[in-house]
Amino acid sequence: METLEDFRVRARSWLAEADPPKVPLDLDSRFAVLRRWQRTLAEAGWLGLAWSPDAGGGGLTHAHQLVFVEELVRARAPQPIGLIGLEVVGPSIDRYGTESQRRELLPRLLSGEDIWCQGFSEPDAGSDLASLRTRAVADGDSYVVTGQKIWTSWAHEAQWCALLVRTDPSVRKQAGISYLLVDMTSPGITVRPIRQMTGDREFCEVFLDEVRVPRPNLLGAENEGWPIATHTLGSERGGATLRRRVELEVALEDAVEALRGRDDLGDRARAAIGRAHVAMRVLDAQTRQTTDRLLADTGPTPLDSVDKLVLNDVEQTVFAEIAGLLGPLRALPGSRPTGLHSERWAHDHLYSRAASIYGGSAQVQRTIVAERLLGLPRG
């Protein structure tokens, strides 16, 4: 197997010649550009590096995957659009899927030909995911699904959805959940995008009205979807934390470069960058343990919740400190006298407020830490 250092050199060389695209702020244009970029990365063999070869992956290690993420971000190249599939859903299909599911679904996921969304949260079961109410009733060779999901990123563009449903309401709530792989073109599915304060509309609510899902689209066994869901969420939190750490580091470097030579900003800018820098060092220390767990392939652990909580705070601190230097000028387009580009930093600051919600809310993560790591009694 190729050594990590040789792999890093090869990745860096390829990225230097690849001419990564510039990412527009307009959401529709952004989606199209990043989908083409995902196809480019997949065709060159840079996606699914740690997945099994028979699923279209590279058969390498998580360490190789981490190295490529680092080099991608350092090259100021964008992430592919299908991160929900690549980082969240795909690893669970690779681990728990049938041979047919892996062979038919994962290569198209890697290439971006199929975009995936994640149908987990519901209006009354977002933070308490195990209380979900979307029902799936067995009927012949299908499940008939009725319910509602919310905060389903990119559902309006997705071809497939990883959907959690309740298949047995008579047992304790975690025990009666199943994990379905749902074709988003199925009759009975309605998607409504939700406009966020950033102006983007990639979050959606999804309504399912007697949607028929073939039984072969069940991932794992019926009523045993909860362990697969925790694997999915663990992949999301661990992998995203490591990727986001590098992205935040590069963002801070960009801000420092833009501010370089602006002595007129004085102590205010130095203090803001200092606070952001300290936050990043905290995240660095935390992710050393994250990397060790990911490479050891220990599976989901309550420590993933610690990662998520630290990332929440650091991401919001970094973007708040940078955006704060723009003052009221952050509402105006273009580069400001500070050298900072207001549209970029204002957008990232607003989006960072969602960090304490997506991937599991901060309140739920604190509960997991309290009960499962500290041994405190349930409230």
TrEMBL record:
Its cofactor is FAD. It comes from Pseudonocardia ailaonensis. This is Acyl-CoA dehydrogenase family protein. The keyword Manganese does not apply. Residues 117-211 form the Acyl-CoA oxidase/dehydrogenase middle domain. InterPro entries: Acyl-CoA_Oxase/DH_mid-dom, Acyl-CoA_Oxase/DH_mid-dom_sf, AcylCo_DH-like_C, AcylCo_DH/oxidase_C, AcylCoA_DH/ox_N, AcylCoA_DH/ox_N_sf, AcylCoA_DH/oxidase_NM_dom_sf, Mycobact_Acyl-CoA_DH. SUPFAM superfamilies: Acyl-CoA dehydrogenase C-terminal domain-like, Acyl-CoA dehydrogenase NM domain-like. Residues 2-113 form the Acyl-CoA dehydrogenase/oxidase N-terminal domain.
